[in-house]
Give the backbone structure.
Amino acid sequence: MNSMGKITHTNLPGIKSPQAAHIFGSLNTNLKVPPSDLHSDAKLVQRCYSQVNELSSSIHDFFIRLDQEAWFLVNSSAQLFTGLSSRRCVSIGLLNGTNETIQIKSAKLIEGGSPCYIIPSKEYDKIQGTLKPGGAVIICGWGASPSFLQSGRVLINVETNLFSGDMSDRKGIETTIHSLPGYQVGFLEKSFDENGWWAKYWILVSREDDTIV
């Protein structure tokens, strides 16, 4: 696992158009969401899906718009689930920075209280479960409302042909990634709510011998 921190990427293998420089996580500011968008987690995902599925790396602000949608999910869930109905949220963005196809074998909640949603860009083949070079997916899920009987934590496991990993709603040993020899998985973003209600990740899969700008 390679931790890249807050850096920008203007060129990657598989990306069809030069990208505007962007720091993932720089858009994480609290925004008021219209009440019409706050119906359920499924509605939030549906809205985000329709936006992301129209995006591809042929547009110059691909990274920016992906990050906007990932933050929309997190920010909206904080406003949708409040009080006794509060639920934790985890959003994981994945960028294919290789010249190869990534097969997403599984994405599932090890801990949580919702389905594990996959929100893909145009480069994703739903039937084969494959992400073409330059493509992206956002994987997200929610916990159950905490109670005396359950903590409401979220832990998502992602398994692909190039790496596998667990990412949680909290800092610590639950977040681990293992990649195959010759590949690296770097964190473009690891953001956590100071009160422990959400976590937002962006990861980049690349070959170890590729030069990334």
User: Anything to note?
Assistant: The first strand starts at residue 2 and ends at 3.
